[in-house]
Amino acid sequence: MNTLHKLVLSISFVFVNSIGLYAQEELTLSDAIQLGLENNFDIQVEALNIKIAENNNNWGAAGRWPTISLSISQNNNFRDVQNAANPFQPTGLSISNNLGPGVSVNWVLFDGFRVHISRERLQKLEELSRGNALLVIENTVQAIITQYYSVKLEQERLDVLEKVFTLSKDRYEYIKLKGELGSAVTFEILQEQNAFLTDSSNMVTQEVNYLNARRTLNLLMGQPINSAYELTDELEVDDSEYELEAMYDKMVSNNTNLQNQYLNLQLARTETRLAKTELYPRLTLNANGAYDLSRQDLSQAQFPDFGDAGGSTRTLVTNQTTSTYALGFTISYLAFDGGRVRRSIENAYTTERINQLQIDQLKLSLRNDLVATYDLYDVRQKLLAISQENIRSAELNLELAEERYKGGTINSFDYRQIQINYLNTALDNAQARYNLLDSETELLRLTGGILSEYDKLD
Fold first, then answer.
1. Could you point out which of 187, 242, 354, 391 has its C-alpha 20 to 30 Å from the C-alpha of 174?
2. What's this model's pTM, rounded to 2 decimal places?
């Protein structure tokens, strides 16, 4: 067996086994999106961010409740007096012990409505976290849709190249047989061999492209990289008509990016209100209580005895308890701080204006994107219609050329040219269908309808 025959068998083996690997569990586009929603790592991260925002959104974090602190202290003192200067002072070792638990309460009763504004801010932060998660979900769904169809595109390209490869192989075997019978010259054999090797190379390269596209889809779905699925949804587009102004109105109402920017504006307004709370007085309740247990041991101390020149030794142990309670209110008002609060309020208003400008800019940018995508969608519709006509003509021309080539009415140069024309037309047709699907998916994302469109797939 010569080297070329080994190459033919090797390519055929790789191709057949690859297709066998792909023909595994069926996977619809809806199934792919569902897998992505459940397993995509970016979506899982955003779900945890929502959990953090939910955990922070409570009255305690806003400062509504008092702070209560418990404490306990314990002290031991040892005092050894020798040669006291005071004749009435006991000498020797005296021991005292102290145990003192305590509690203190601090409660801000009024702070310029800061607590309610802080809670509102926490609620907006939770909404923004959900909005960011929704944006990630939409982008992930769009990526899965386009990648799903990208795999289908690479598969169609592979099918086309496999068909051309088969024709080249058959033609090469045919011309080689004619050469063995003496009816074909070496030039014709070499020409067909060259065409066969070119098609072989193209198919092997496309095989790699197909595998890479499949791995990328698995990554988006959060599946093992080498998972193999049979994608059942076809690379076809419904001939949908869209009206630009209606889509713009829908985009203003539903675009997730824009909705998140509105939330940022609302957050900026709460920051302004928070800055204003420092203009109000602050009323605080302070309460504390303490209990003190003291013990003094003088059993090892010596006391002077003026009735006895030699002195005497006495023993004395005492216990004492003390309870202390306090309750008070503090009113404080910021009389002067060098204009810090006024500057903070002014900066907060400026931040509001910045957010409003960003909304206006985003609206204009989104409209520009919408118009550009809408025009591109319209152009790609027309290109697809042209491509559909071309592929029908190219397929028929290829069938007729094969019969004429075998009948000897056209030469190998003409047949190869027709074959290349079919290849290019088929690849262009697959690309045109994919491009139109890509533009339609982008239109759905811009108008905030990609998730509702996904629901229709179920």
1. 391
2. 0.82
